[in-house]
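Please go through the sequence line and token line underneath and see whether the fold suits the sequence. See right below:
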Amino acid sequence: LIVCVPYRMPWSFVAVAVVAATCACVSAAQNSGCYTAAAVLHTPLGSVEYGAEENVKANVDAMPEYIEEAARIGPVQIIVFPEGYTGYYDLAMSRETVTPYCVEVPDVGGELPSVNPCDSKGNYSDQLSRVSCYAREYGVVIVTNICEYKSCSNFNDPYCPPDAHYQFNTNLVFSSNGDLIATYRKSHEAGHCQILDQPHTPDYTTFTTPFGITFATFVCADLQYVYPPLEYVRNGIKHFVHTTDTPGGTTYSVPMLLNGWSLTNQVNIIQGNAETSGIGIYSAGTPLVSAGPFVYDTSKHMVIVSQLPVTPTYGFQAAVAGSAELHFAPLQPPTRLTNTWTWPHPL
């Protein structure tokens, strides 16, 4: 059995007062003191009436539109898509219906070599290969989230689920050349323990980008726990990417929550969301760009862009910042087979 940590709110931050120190970046070039990031709010496209393949394809097809729209605002170097981007969180209602959304992911990171699914499309799922190719084509670091399928056996793994595989909620990091350089498995599932699994030992993942910034990553409810988020902070990490699927009806504002966390820990954080509760990019308690919550919207598609300082700075003024809303046509209703015979059926 997988141990399920109850959903609770052990807040690991408090509001503090700091003295504002303003500065501005005038260039996003490497080593200029700034980098430029984008975050995506994306309500998954598709329908429960479709199969996983159609839903996943519709969402992966939308990725270039976000990247291109972000590039119109500024020279984006890293873009963060939300938790459940492919629809497995919102369009599947049980462990069995989530499984078709899940794909195998190679082990990378640490001392393990990176892999490039764009170069070896036959060896990896279409999801991984296409995102890898997008990262290379646009020359941008992509952080996205998928359902990971990992086989296991009770013979050598006492935590292996009865259906002989794990379904992890996993962040993937693709470098700007298409290499898959890091993965992170959500360590604290909030209410989805019968559908998704969490690692027996909380994951800990950092990665360094081609533009020289080392990031840590985690998912949604992980933010409310000491490990790994505050362990990253204790180890000197100053830059974070956070994926979430937080409903708009929650009692707190996601932008407020993330901004408070960045203020207390004096860090930069870039957050993508699959729900209308909001998104944001923050530096040491300064919301550089944020949007939401959109209380009366059930669907939203937008991208925000901002420069961030290499040294997180309260009161930082970005020379490049903006947002854009996108619109996608709904998928056509699935074709239904109809019978042509009349009753009574001729024998």
Summary: The first strand starts at residue 24 and ends at 25. Residues 52-73 form the longest helix (22 residues). Residues 1-23, 26-31, 336-347 have pLDDT under 50 and may be disordered.
